[in-house]
């Protein structure tokens, strides 16, 4: 038995065991739908209910719209939240990637299993996170980062929200990053193409994220300009468009234009001034909730230190130590990671933090179900490796310190995550 065990990567075996355990945990809390009857499910979020409804519609009809007979009487005035009525058809009021993917998965594995897709994808996301961090740093940091991702409260919470798109989005995004970094390091065409495919799939789930995902590739390009294969990049763009094309088709079918989407961003421009129109358009795209740094600062504090105090204190210490080490040692991967995290993390805080989301009947309550948590999910996740990296470097000569400290932190943080999530 020991010989068999030695043949496998022990860290991966442990991660697999954690994966099985947390798939069960996520699934237990993920069956959160209210069954009206055998064919109708209502979730405690309008977005989740809409995603399930259109996944089921695609499973049954290969369409992402349906006709509600009520509107023949009501004059196109009746639609549930997170849905819209256009030309007599009820269509998604959000992005169509998740219903498309989950509709396809339901065709393959059955609609009855739909609530298990997100927990399984979450576990898959942890594994690709492990391989990404291993590629950037080392096995030890990757292993403990993956372990802590399982119990991260935001990740745990949304892994249990079976019809919310956030875990699907973040997992596809992690695949995109993994193959993008691999393409730079290995310079193989199939890594470029896989990166393009996963980028398209990521943006199919949440197209608006293009405003902060594309700058990541811009920064990666600056750091790795001499290592890029431009002919592979051009071919990757073609593969990206082909992969993304189903969304363009359904945009045309549902909204009348390939570039139209369910969201209304308020891009109408009434001013006659070209300069004012240009400024308004840029702000609507890159700062749709306007620019309120003071509000963003308060919201960031509320949804870090007030909601997750222990996680946030440890993360801040880890960020400061990692930043100091990266700047003083000038190691390429550390500097690149820090620069991308700082730029994109800061932008996400301003982008979403500048607005007041009222997801709770009591707007003063700070809860894990508020939208800020899902929008800050990339920040929570990519802070983890910096904490583990800092612990590892502080006690580099004492090889047992990292696992001992990590186990202690795992126990403490698991308890806080459980209290917040459950």
Proportion of helical residues: 55-70%
Total strands = 4
Strand order of the largest sheet: 1-2
Oligomer status: single chain
Find the structural class using helix and strand composition. Answer: mainly alpha
Number of helices: 19
Give the N-to-C terminal Cα separation. Answer: 38 Å
Q: What is the overall pLDDT average?
A: 87
H/E series, N to C? HHEEHHEEHHHHHHHHHHHHHHH
Principal-axis shape equals: globular
- The low-confidence parts are 265-270, 273-279
Question: What does the secondary structure layout of this molecule look like, with pairings?
Answer:
Layout: H1 2-7, H2 10-30, E1 34-37, E2 40-42, H3 46-61, H4 70-74, E3 83-86, E4 89-92, H5 97-109, H6 117-136, H7 139-151, H8 153-159, H9 166-186, H10 189-205, H11 210-223, H12 230-255, H13 274-286, H14 293-306, H15 309-329, H16 332-353, H17 371-375, H18 377-394, H19 401-421
Antiparallel strand pairs: 1-2, 3-4
Helix pairs in contact: 2-6, 2-7, 3-5, 6-7, 6-9, 7-18, 7-19, 8-19, 9-10, 10-12, 11-16, 14-16, 15-16, 15-18, 16-18
Structure characterization notes:
This protein has about 425 residues and is mainly alpha-helical. Helix content is about 70%, strand content about 5%. The protein contains 19 helices and four strands. The chain has helices at about 1-5, 10-30, 45-60, 70-75, 95-110, 115-135, 140-150, 155-160, 165-185, 190-205, 210-225, 230-255, 275-285, 295-305, 310-330, 330-355, 370-375, 375-395, 400-420; strands at about 35, 40, 85, 90. The strands form two sheets. It has a two-stranded antiparallel sheet. A hairpin with a 2-residue loop joins strand 1 and strand 2 (about 40). The radius of gyration is 22 Å and the shape is globular.
